[in-house]
Amino acid sequence: HTEGDRALETPYLQIENVHKRFGSFVALRDIYLDVYPGEFVCLLGPSGCGKTTLLRIIAGLEQQTSGRVIQAGRDVSSLPPAKRDFGIVFQSYALFPNLTAAQNIAYGLQNAKMPKAQIDARVAELLETVGLAGFGAKYPAQLSGGQQQRVALARALALSPGLLLLDEPLSALDAQVRVRLRTEIAQLQKRLGITTIMVTHDQAEALAMADRAVVMDKGYIAQVGTPHSIYQRPTTPFVANFIGVMNFLRGVVASSGQVRCGNLLLDAPRNEFDMNTPVQIAIRPENVKILPQQDAFDSSLPNVIAAELEEVEFLGSGYRIGMRLEGDAKDLITSELPADAAELLDLQVGAALVAQLPPDCIQVFAQEPVRA
Ligand code: ATP
């Protein structure tokens, strides 16, 4: 689906002009969001941006100050959690420690007065679904963190809710388990086709799992889009920097396709600013090329800059290097090099390098207003 196709569909969940204040503190403002059937949406942003508050408002665990939440065409804005239709998984597994995995999963089914034989069949099916067939008799303390989180997921899915809410479900797990479980959750979500909203502060997790990501900052939505579009076409420097890493160079617009940064005149297409506007050009480290010395003076290449190596960091799959650009700009920019490219270079601190900033990979933003 492109975002255009979706406009013709009826959203499963609509958040309309939600605001939330805690006393005089504004935690959320002007929140509009449509989530489509079967979509996996990640709420993403730095600590304190309001993502957990928004998820809790969707669940009815927190009451918005104003605005509406519409789920499956029904205004649920003032319903308590029990009257809404969702399953939720929290960061802390929140399992009953005195109940087995099977009993934890069965809990909501018993409350819903499902007959015993049906409960047993459903629990077995759910254990299978989350890859824990045969673990039903274990107590939470006998399970690993990843296994406990699978039980929590099975419990959230038990009553076949219309909406799955995930509140940083992976952040308490160690790195390897986290990466495996995120793939499994994303596959399971697609298999079940359940509309899902996940809160995370981990941008890699959001890029890997989400159909669309909602990037939040200080209580408002900074950008909504597919992971690809947010990564490739961030609309603000905040989003550019929060999603992945970005180099910024300050300058002024010198002509429609050029920006002057100190004594460097750089080609920067896709730039709609007026002459002399203070701007910043942005380029991702993986797009900053390092040229062999002999190509340094090939005048047909745009944006070739001499630089001095200042920092080298081994990443395993390659290197991240920090270079000081020559000339009066003297900015530090970073580049990521695959191991094979790095082998051809002298990576001693102080070495002379030739960097290239391919114009296609450059984005131009207005400079943030400078406050006195
Ligand atoms: P984190 O990743 O750190 O959990 P978050 O983006 O989920 O951050 P929220 O938990 O939604 O952020 O909180 C948003 C802001 O609202 C924070 O500044 C927080 O201190 C404030 N806040 C949240 N809950 C309350 C509350 N019950 N009373 C007062 N302030 C609150």
From TrEMBL:
It is an enzyme of class 7 (translocase). Residues 13-243 form the ABC transporter domain. InterPro entries: AAA+_ATPase (IPR003593), ABC_SmlMolc_Importer (IPR050093), ABC_transporter-like_ATP-bd (IPR003439), ABC_transporter-like_CS (IPR017871), AminoethylPonate_ABC_PhnT2 (IPR017666), Mo/tungstate-bd_C_term_dom (IPR008995), P-loop_NTPase (IPR027417), Transp-assoc_OB_typ2 (IPR013611). Keywords: ATP-binding, Cell inner membrane, Cell membrane, Membrane, Nucleotide-binding, Translocase, Transport. Gene3D superfamilies: 2.40.50.100, P-loop containing nucleotide triphosphate hydrolases. One of its GO terms (molecular function) is ABC-type quaternary ammonium compound transporting activity. It is found in: Cell inner membrane. Pfam families: ABC_tran, TOBE_2. Its EC number is 7.6.2.9. PANTHER family: PUTRESCINE TRANSPORT ATP-BINDING PROTEIN POTG, SPERMIDINE/PUTRESCINE IMPORT ATP-BINDING PROTEIN POTA. This is ABC-type quaternary amine transporter. It comes from Thermoleptolyngbya sichuanensis A183. The lineage of its organism: Bacteria, Bacillati, Cyanobacteriota, Cyanophyceae, Oculatellales.
